[in-house]
């Protein structure tokens, strides 16, 4: 199927464009169905070099439980995420430092992917992978527009940008990729490089790139980062259409079991980079 790319200034209801990135794969290629079919390893430039002690310990971890404990303790120390006690509380002027953390941002996404936390996560994907979002509260089509201005204001708001939140997510992504390589994916995929995931959606028609939903196989443009599920039954709770997708493991940011405690709303929720995907669409879950 054709990817159906259009330039930012081309006529049409949903122009698409891509930016520079830090993963050494052009964003246009990263967003394509061709990349999904034959993915390449991805790494955010400079992240592992900036945290060599962490990744040395992660490589030596005997299992995922030990690896995630190492990750959490390192992040607490490196980014000052320990919950302050009365005797160790920061000065009043430094109190904002405790507000921004990878965990709180993910929890904010889980509550509302179209809220301020969701805008910051989408902005991180833009910055690191060059994939522009296609939806935040409203379709992000022509720029400038009221929808784009609202998204930009939220993604740059200081509420989440007072403690190197993008760098925290860089480390989270690299931790996820290392864990997938060492301990495997919890999802069932057709190849060692893919996870078979499902997504429920009510806005399928505006995401179509090629094919038709009624034919049950088509190409769709998913937002630059999306929530997916490990099973079709869970995905069916979030839309009338259920999309089955083969997602490259290198496009995963969070998967069930990677992190301790309640991070996302759903126990089977996966966060994955978007772009063009060939999907199997069904309006009935068997």
Task: Give a quick set of tags describing it.
10 helices, 33% helix, disordered N terminus, 8 strands, globular, alpha+beta, six-stranded antiparallel sheet
Topology diagram in text:
Blueprint: H1 27-30, H2 33-37, H3 47-50, H4 52-60, H5 64-78, H6 102-111, H7 116-129, E1 135-136, E2 138-139, H8 146-155, H9 165-183, E3 194-201, E4 208-212, E5 217-229, H10 232-235, E6 241-248, E7 252-254, E8 269-282
Antiparallel strand pairs: 1-2, 3-6, 4-5, 5-8, 6-8, 7-8
Helix pairs in contact: 4-5, 5-9, 6-7, 7-8
Summarize the structure.
This protein is of the alpha+beta class and 286 residues long. The chain has helices at 27-30, 33-37, 47-50, 52-60, 64-78, 102-111, 116-129, 146-155, 165-183, 232-235, and strands at 135-136, 138-139, 194-201, 208-212, 217-229, 241-248, 252-254, 269-282.
Describe this structure in words.
By secondary structure, the protein is α+β, with helices and mostly antiparallel strands. It has 2 domains: 157 residues, no CATH class; 89 residues, no CATH class. The protein is built from 10 helices and 8 strands. The longest helix is centred in the middle third of the chain and has 19 residues. The radius of gyration is 19 Å and the shape is globular.
């Amino acid at each position: 199927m054709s990817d159906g790319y259009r330039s930012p200034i081309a006529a049409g209801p949903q122009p698409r464009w891509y930016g520079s990135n830090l993963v050494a794969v052009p964003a246009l290629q990263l967003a394509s169905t061709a990349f999904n079919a034959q993915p390449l390893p991805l790494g955010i430039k400079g992240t592992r070099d900036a945290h060599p002690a962490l990744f040395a310990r992660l490589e030596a971890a005997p299992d995922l439980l030990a690896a995630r404990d190492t990750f959490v303790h390192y992040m607490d120390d490196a980014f000052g995420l320990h919950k302050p006690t009365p005797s160790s509380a920061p000065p009043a002027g430094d109190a904002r430092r405790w507000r921004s953390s990878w965990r709180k941002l993910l929890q904010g996404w889980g509550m509302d992917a179209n809220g301020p936390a969701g805008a910051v996560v989408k902005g991180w994907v833009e910055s690191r992978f060059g994939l522009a979002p296609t939806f935040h509260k409203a379709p992000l089509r022509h720029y400038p527009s009221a929808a784009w201005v609202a998204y930009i204001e939220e993604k740059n708001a200081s509420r989440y940008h007072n403690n190197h939140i993008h760098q925290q997510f860089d480390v989270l992504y690299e931790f996820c990729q290392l864990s997938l390589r060492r301990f495997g994916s919890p999802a069932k995929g057709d190849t060692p490089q893919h996870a078979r995931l499902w997504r429920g959606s009510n806005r399928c028609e505006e995401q179509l790139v090629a094919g038709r939903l009624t034919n049950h196989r088509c190409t769709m443009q998913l937002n630059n980062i999306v929530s997916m599920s490990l099973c079709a039954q869970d995905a069916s709770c979030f839309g009338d259409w259920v999309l089955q997708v083969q997602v490259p493991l290198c496009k995963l940011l969070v998967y069930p079991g990677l992190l301790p405690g309640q991070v996302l709303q759903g126990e089977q929720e996966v966060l994955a980079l978007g772009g063009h995907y060939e999907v199997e669409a069904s309006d009935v879950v068997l």
